[in-house]
Specification:
The chain has 61 residues and is mainly β. Helix content is 0%, strand content 13%. A 3-stranded antiparallel beta sheet has the order 2-1-3, with no helix packed on it. The structure holds zinc ion.
Length: 61
């Protein structure tokens, strides 16, 4: 919090399990190329672990 000099990782944490989406990794199993920001994930994308929807994810920096 308040770390304006630190570049955010863009990671998003699933609220229903331990999975965190990392845009540097993407999600190849669902056709998401590395480098895809969380905001650009398609609406049909779900958590690869527990199948929670994008709305269940919160920014973890
Ligand atoms: Zn999950």
């Amino acid at each position: 919090m308040g770390q304006t000099t630190t570049k955010p990782t863009g990671r998003y944490q699933c609220r229903d399990c331990i999975y965190a989406y990392d845009p540097a990794v993407g999600d190849l199993k669902q056709g998401i190329s590395p480098g895809t920001p969380f905001e650009d994930l398609p609406d049909y994308w779900v958590c690869p672990v527990c199948r929670a929807s994008k709305r269940r994810f919160i920014s973890s920096g």
